Amino acid sequence: MKVRSIGPLGDYLREQRRNAELSLRQLADLAGVSNPYLSQIERGVRKPSAEVLQQLAKALRVSAEVLYVRAGLLDPTDGDGEQDISVEMAIHADPILSVRQKRVLLDIYSSFRREADEEETSEPERESTTQNRAVRHARQED
């Protein structure tokens, strides 16, 4: 896992907080952290724990994984979720979309991913069923 600078995390948090039209104090209250601590995170002075990042993600209604990547706790190229994280990051990073638009896009993307995963899981079942029908059909012709 690569270690990344925490500077972009603070900038990203500030941008998301402003997009959500929350003051520093409001976000701190929602996330259950102190006002000064959140200010230090936004300025890149402090590096938050995964737990604090999760609380911030919940308060901002953004993906915790995106915050983990921004904080250097998770490498976007690790694991099977590489594409998920990069798509989510792109949506979250778009300065033109509203918070509501971002949520809708993320919901749609997640539903498409779930459908694709379900189709991928059921694909071998369909192939097996098709093969069984072909075998039965061939036996009936004999």
TrEMBL record:
Keywords: DNA-binding
Protein name from the UniProt record: Transcriptional regulator with XRE-family HTH domain
Source organism per UniProt: Actinopolymorpha rutila
Pfam families registered for this protein in UniProt: HTH_3 (PF01381)
Lineage, top ranks: Bacteria, Bacillati, Actinomycetota, Actinomycetes, Propionibacteriales
GO molecular function: DNA binding; DNA-binding transcription factor activity
Any coiled-coil regions, as ranges: none
Cellular component GO terms, alphabetical: cytosol
Region spans: Disordered: 114-142
Domain of life, source organism: Bacteria
UniProt keyword annotation of Transmembrane present: no
HTH cro/C1-type domain mapped to chain residues: 13-67
